[in-house]
Amino acid sequence: MASDDSTFDFTDNSHRRYNPLTDTWVLVSPHRAKRPWLGQQEAPSKLEIAEYDESCYLCPRNLRATGSKNPNYGSTFIFPNDYAAVKLNQPGLSQGRGNDSERDQLFKTSSVEGNCYVICFSPKHNLTLPLMMHKEIVRVVEAWISLYRQLEEEANQGKPFKYVQIFENKGTAMGCSNLHPHGQAWCLSTVPNELMKEFTSFKKFQDSFSKHMLDSYMEIELSERERVVVENDSFVVLVPFWAIWPFETLVVSKTHLPSLKEFNAKQQSDLAAILKNLTTKYDNLFSTSFPYSMGTHQAPLNASEEEKKISWFHMHFYPPLLRSATVRKFLVGFELLGEPQRDLTAEQAAERLRTLDGITHYSENLD
Predict the structure, then answer these.
(1) 126 annotated ligand binder
(2) Tens digit of pLDDT for each residue in 244-284?
(3) Which residue segment(s) compose the domain that 354 sits in?
(4) Burial of 279 (0-12, 13-18, 19+ CB in 10 A)
């Protein structure tokens, strides 16, 4: 029998939470987090990684796998991915005979073109975002903006570029094949699925309430403050109410910025500052170099006025760690066959992250 709101305990009773960005649900089972944990507890780890690795394909002056040589770069360095996931100037793909038959409805294909880029954050092989100085992360943000503008210009000159997805996979747990701190940018002739879901939801909300969804959501979160992790003048970091991953966060611009292109110098600096703060908190959570996948969501390249209206710059962080440096969350069983599920509530995760130091890195206290 369902209980009424007066007796329902969100920290103990199972419930579902709605994700308005993607029109999906997540099952929350907070009572399961009260199970005794007898698993491994690790001591703080300090990886001994050299500042330069002569075998690394991304370090300055080194040869890459295809034989190209990196310049002796001294700051953030971007180059076309030698093994791009999408290509330019490939043969066209027939769209079939139409959409009339059952087969046409069941076996659809569509051509896609584009290019991919590698973004080396720093020439130093061992310098992850939380270990970088603020001014160094500002250069990363500036590089993102420069690439966005460059791709817009290339699109204006005829290249089939519509959307650029900027992201980072940090750590081997996230499939990163090279530990030199770097991100990627995949530029496609189409808008990816997750973005289309968000744009659809944003437009529906705006049509109903004459206000952007993230503007409304942020107002409520900043008022309630239960899920706020950290904020500055330009950005706020939240554990979203509908989070799937244990310590998932959302970085949202406080004002309507459709894309990186609209950032002023203050907002560039503030984004760098809050990324350093958040990633330092992540590393301090389990005293380890914290793995995650993170990326930007923003307006398409050369966006129309309507696309700018429904776009709002934000970043998603999806870290897999659950209880310690080696205990990970996996989407298995019910989560693969039914819907995502979590034990730790968003409010509990936010409290854990909020109380962690976002300035001093745990490794600074190690011998």
Answers:
(1) no
(2) 999 999 999 999 999 999 999 999 999 999 999 999 999 99
(3) 48-88+109-362
(4) buried
